[in-house]
Amino acid sequence: MEKLNNKPIDSRDGDETYEKGHHPNSKANLVPFERGLSGNPLGKPNHAKLTRMLKDIGGEVVLDYHGKPKGTRKELVLKTIYDKAIQGHNIKYIQLLIWLGVLDD
Fold first, then answer.
1. pLDDT band per the 50, 70, 90 thresholds, residue 76
2. 8: which of 1, 56, 98, 102 fits an S-S bond (Cβ 3.0–4.6 Å)?
3. Where in the chain are the domains?
4. What DSSP string runs through 22-72?
């Protein structure tokens, strides 16, 4: 602490004690949003278009080298997740299946 005229100077001298967030300076620049507007001008992202496109692509049938159908893209992804879980190389695949509830009886 510094001393002035042989008295210690405390930066808190003369300040009243305020609860956290209630000091007048902490609220000086706050302006409430107008009714109907939020802090995010774009709003919540809408993934409906992306979801629809992914579902359309997921329904496409994948062909092997000889032109025989292997299944839809969605089926192949699910089979891959199961295969990786069975191989046990990464616990994340098993956790994903558990989280989705597909291993429940």
1. very high
2. 1
3. 18-100
4. -SGGGSTT--PPPTT--S-TT-S---HHHHHHHHHHHTSEEE-TTS-EEEE
